[in-house]
């Protein structure tokens, strides 16, 4: 799946859900396809591939985070290594990350952040222990793992990140050739039905976007991008006319008021408070029965679609949901 470009700024680093992300999917996909087409042309003509025009390993500070991480993440997945000089496990993990960044030859960039000299970034990412490794792709936060890992496990995580970056976000790093080069994929024609859905979302026609995504899914029920687009468009529809203050007040007044909790969870998600949204609905499922419980459970599953089934926050919430259900 391709997802349209998004932005994550230094004041909102906690994985805020960018509901405009799907609007930029076409542009991101086009950029990825252009990169693949250029690589295919080079392979066919025997021309040496262009080297990545960015450093593969760099030290990042609070002043350079926006340009070196957020902006660069629209071109290549940026892996963020949180470390400190006093941290023993960091000294084991960091060389592995640096070696793999060089080996992957432009398919990822490694940004190293010293938490002692850049405490604000660490705080905004919610770092509670180091080493901690996250990624930023197309401006969106992708948690990876915490603690030291061996090289084999790190390699698996990076391989998954690269696949998700291309399939979900349309981001393809510029390979620098050599061992890191990858086989080229053929260009895939644009999907007119999906483009119609994106265009409706671009125009702010949420009802039209919902219908267009549903049209795609009626023919291809498993279409991942259409499912994401539908979930996001429906979420935007639900929150469009809500009064946030009233919603919060209603939810606080009665923890068993399912509709109040659903509205509050929607606002939580739109505001980037993913764990709060998921936790609210898991708690609602635990406190309710019958139709009310099923209503809360189904809404939670819808919000999982917005975030993505592979996101660690979704995985954790699914486990929490299973515990209260069974």
Structure description:
By secondary structure, this protein is α/β, with parallel strands linked by helices. Helices cover about 55% and strands about 10% of the residues. The chain is built from 13 helices and five strands. It has helices at about 25-45, 65-70, 90-105, 120-125, 150-170, 190-200, 205-220, 225-240, 245-255, 260-270, 275-285, 290-305, 310-325, and strands at about 55-60, 80-85, 110-115, 130-135, 140-145. Strands 1-3-2-4-5 form a five-stranded mixed sheet, with helices on both faces. The longest helix is centred in the first third of the chain and has 21 residues, at about 25-45. The two termini are about 30 Å apart. The model is unreliable at about 1-30 and about 175-190 (pLDDT under 50).
Short description:
The protein has helices spanning 25-45, 65-71, 88-103, 119-125, 151-169, 192-202, 206-219, 224-239, 244-253, 258-270, 274-287, 290-307, 312-325; strands at 57-59, 78-83, 109-114, 132-137, 140-146.
Give the H and E element order: HEHEHEHEEHHHHHHHHH
What portion of residues belong to β-strands? Answer: 5-15%
First-to-last CA distance: 32 Å
Averaging pLDDT over every residue, what do you get?
Answer: 79
C-alpha Rg (nearest Å)? 21 Å
Q: Please tally the β strands and state the result.
A: 5
Helix content: 55-70%
* Morphology call: globular
Give, in spatial order, the strands making up the sheet with the most strands.
Answer: 1-3-2-4-5
- Uncertain segments are 1-29, 176-189
**Largest sheet geometry:** 5 strands, mixed
């Amino acid at each position: 799946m391709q997802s349209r470009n998004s932005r994550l700024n230094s004041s909102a680093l906690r994985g805020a859900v960018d509901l405009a992300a799907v609007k930029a999917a076409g542009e991101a996909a086009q950029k990825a396809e252009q990169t693949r087409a250029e690589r295919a042309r080079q392979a066919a003509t025997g021309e040496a591939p262009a080297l990545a025009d960015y450093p593969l390993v760099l030290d990042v500070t609070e002043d350079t985070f926006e340009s070196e991480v957020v902006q660069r993440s629209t071109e290549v997945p940026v892996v963020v290594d949180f470390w400190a000089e006093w941290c023993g496990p960091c000294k084991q993990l960091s060389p592995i990350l640096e070696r793999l960044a060089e080996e992957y030859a432009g398919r990822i960039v490694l940004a190293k952040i010293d938490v002692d000299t850049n405490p604000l970034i660490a705080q905004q990412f919610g770092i509670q222990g180091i080493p901690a490794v996250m990624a930023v792709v197309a401006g969106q936060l992708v948690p990876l793992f915490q603690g030291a890992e061996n090289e084999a496990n790190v390699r698996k995580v990076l391989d998954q990140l690269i696949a998700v970056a291309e399939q979900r976000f349309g981001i393809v790093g510029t390979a620098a050739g050599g061992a890191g080069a990858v086989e080229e994929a053929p260009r895939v024609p644009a999907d007119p039905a999906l483009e119609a859905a994106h265009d409706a979302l671009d125009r702010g026609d949420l009802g039209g976007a919902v219908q267009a995504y549903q049209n795609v899914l009626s023919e291809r029920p498993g279409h991942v991008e259409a499912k994401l687009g539908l979930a996001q468009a429906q979420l935007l529809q639900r929150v469009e006319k809500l009064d946030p203050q009233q919603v919060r007040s209603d939810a606080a007044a009665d923890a068993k008021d399912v509709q109040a909790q659903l509205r509050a969870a929607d606002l939580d998600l739109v505001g980037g408070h993913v764990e709060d949204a998921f936790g609210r609905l898991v708690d609602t499922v635990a406190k309710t029965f019958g139709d009310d419980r099923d209503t809360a459970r189904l809404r939670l599953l819808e919000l999982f679609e917005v975030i993505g089934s592979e996101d660690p926050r979704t995985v954790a919430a699914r486990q929490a949901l299973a515990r209260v259900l069974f």
